[in-house]
Amino acid sequence: MEATLCDSKSLSSDQDGTNDQANIAIRELKIYQKQWSINVRVLRNTIDSFKNGEGNKQKLILIDEEGTLIQAILFNKLIEKFSGLLIKEETYTITNGEVKPPNLKYPTINPEKELTLTTKTIIRETKKIVSLEKLKPTFLSFKDVSAFDDGIMPFDVVGFVITVKPIFTNPKSKRREVIIMNKERVSITTKSSTLVLVNPEIPQCSEMIDWLKNSNSESSKSVLLTTTKRITQANRVKLIDVINTSPQLSKSMFCSFVAKIITIINAEEPFFSACTKCKKAVHEINGSTANCTNCKNGNSDWTIRYNLRLEVNDGTDTAYVTLFDEAEILIGCTAIAYVEMFEDESSECYQKMKSCLEKEYVFLVKINEKEESNRKARCIIAQEVRKVEEIHPPTVETEETGRNKVIDARK
Ligand SMILES: [Zn+2]
């Protein structure tokens, strides 16, 4: 069955002699169709060897703008040919290849079709990123997942990674246990069709991150201590660019700078009493409630929050950086624990805070207009802070494990 689409267009060729076809949706691909062009984002990319290492098979899971998922495979020489392409999370235009019915003996992401890329396939990078908006996972609670223990029906779960164990290898497979949690615990196994998306831009993921931030459990704290995507991806600039809001920093964007902590200005009291509702300082405290002038409420709940003020220097310029809740990264415990544990300057948390002196950190700053004059006065609020060496952390994604890998959430 030859392709009939875009006959008029297929007459025109672009520079590399390929048909300049219009992109279609994965939904529109017909079984055995050979000429087509799709715009897709790579969500999973694994390479396995087979026949005792004689051959290699690359497996991709792709998504298009309609949210349709499809698996694509390619072998041996083609893997080399496209080795600089098909990077996870990037979007590509893939033109031509074979559309086949999937072998239902193996787990598949699309029960109707899959793609085999061939020597006729052209792959081009494109700047038009496919969003995950239409990917509508129906997340099951961990409790409900136990009904799926036959391993046949696929399901979606959302959780946060709390521990990544070393890779365990035996002659037949490679596996690695990753412990995930949400509000519950369960043990699940991934398959070759499983998608593991780290911090995908979908509402359920942001909700979980918010929940974590408001949760006080030990596990949620450890998650918050892992490097977030923001600080890893933010534009790295010089301290002077932040102070002067240099034009390269467009409004409401995040940027980061590296600087050494030279003084802890309020080491004696790096915290304050804050209204739990508006997070602003309260002064007249009556037991568990306080008078919040900001909320105009004489009966507000209050808590202890960090407000750590630092003097930093990047080798050229000096500035004052304020850290609120993120000071926990430097001090190693919550503000409430800090106050409870503090006895004198020999306290562990106090010593940990002092140990940050003379060391270099990456600071994340949100460039909003409201703070512009403060930045000009060299007073900067940092949204995140990390040790310089943590900004290129080992990946937390699971390694491919032969056929299966394990996500264990028992602990
Ligand atoms: Zn308030």
Describe this structure in words.
This protein has helices at residues 76-81, 142-145, 203-214, 218-224, 229-233, 239-243, 327-331, 335-341, 348-354, 372-376, and strands at residues 37-50, 55-63, 69-75, 91-95, 98-100, 114-116, 122-125, 160-164, 168-169, 174-175, 177-181, 187-190, 235-236, 253-264, 271-275, 284-286, 289-292, 297-306, 308-313, 318-323, 360-367, 379-382, 384-387, 405-408. The chain has three domains: 9-125, Nucleic acid-binding proteins (OB fold (Dihydrolipoamide Acetyltransferase, E2P)); 142-216 and 395-408, no CATH class; 229-270 and 307-391, Nucleic acid-binding proteins (OB fold (Dihydrolipoamide Acetyltransferase, E2P)). The chain has 411 residues and is α+β, with helices and mostly antiparallel strands. The strands form five sheets. It has a seven-stranded mixed β-sheet. Strands 13, 14, 19, 20, 21, 22 and 23 form a seven-stranded mixed β-sheet that branches. Strands 8-11-24-12 form a four-stranded mixed β-sheet. The chain has ten helices and 24 strands. It is elongated and about 75 Å long. The model is unreliable at 1-19 and 393-411 (pLDDT under 50). Bound molecules: zinc ion (ZN). Residues 275, 277-278, 280, 292, 294-295, 300 line the site of zinc ion. Zinc ion (ZN) binds at residues 275, 277-278, 280, 292, 294-295, 300.
